[in-house]
Design goal:
- The complex is a heterodimer of chains A (119) and B (107).
- Chain A contains no helices and eleven strands.
- By secondary structure, chain A is mostly beta strands.
- In chain A, the strands form two sheets. In chain A, strands 2, 4, 5, 6, 9, 10 and 11 form a seven-stranded mixed sheet that branches. A four-stranded antiparallel sheet of chain A has the order 1-3-8-7, with no helix packed on it.
- In chain A, strand 5 (45-51) and strand 6 form a beta hairpin.
- Chain A starts with a strand and ends with a strand.
- With 107 residues, chain B is mainly β.
- Chain B has strands at 4-7, 10-12, 19-29, 34-39, 46-50, 54-55, 63-76, 86-91, 103-106.
- Chain B is globular.
- The termini of chain B are far apart.
- The chains are: A mainly beta (119), B mainly beta (107).
- The A-B interface holds A 35, 37, 44-47, 50, 59-62, 95, 100, 103-107, 109-112 and B 1, 32-35, 37, 39, 44-47, 49-51, 54, 56-57, 88, 90, 92, 95-102.
Chain lengths: 119, 107
Amino acid sequence: QVQLVESGGGLVKPGGSLRLSCAASGFTFSDYYMSWIRQAPGKGLEWVSYISSSSTYTNYADSVKGRFTISRDNARNSLYLQINSLSAEDTAVYYCARDLRYNYGYDYWGQGTLVTVSS
Amino acid sequence: EIVLTQSPGTLSLSPGERATLSCRASQSVSSTYLAWYQQKSGQAPRLLIYGASSRATGIPDRFSGSGSGTDFTLTISRLEPEDFAVYYCQQHAEAPKTFGQGTKVEI
């Protein structure tokens, strides 16, 4: 069965960095675009970034452009999000999600990892 | 950036009733690129509808989507107790792949 498991979240000081990981299993990871979506406490969903199946294409929300970097390792079935220069506004649960292969939407989501930015 | 506006913000209904949720886009979006999700408290979102009207795998047929251009609708024909949740629309037409702010369906 398809599984996405995020890790790497935690408490970090403003200006700090974290690397989030998403371990994928149960499907051919290299066939799918993958994305990160976040949700601040008590707020709605915010799309963060996507990466194409072979890493050729990436895109970012304006709010994170220049500070976040998405990457993947198809040999390790893993997705990553390097997040730098963190501020309180980045406090959120970060979800990785699998893009539908021939349509548009996220059909599988991880359980999320919480990033808290506080001094 | 395409802004998606969902209405109403909160929908108060009873089990067995029909729910109609709206998602309006700030510019025309091909129906191919419009998706709906359900999120229950403390859980990750779940894909309900993609392509504006296609149900995702395992989604009961009481959920249906419709619309085109700038106006899209999610309809739940007869609410079950497990349907009380927050619902989001999202467009995949262009980056940023924006979400609506959500509609809470409550008892």
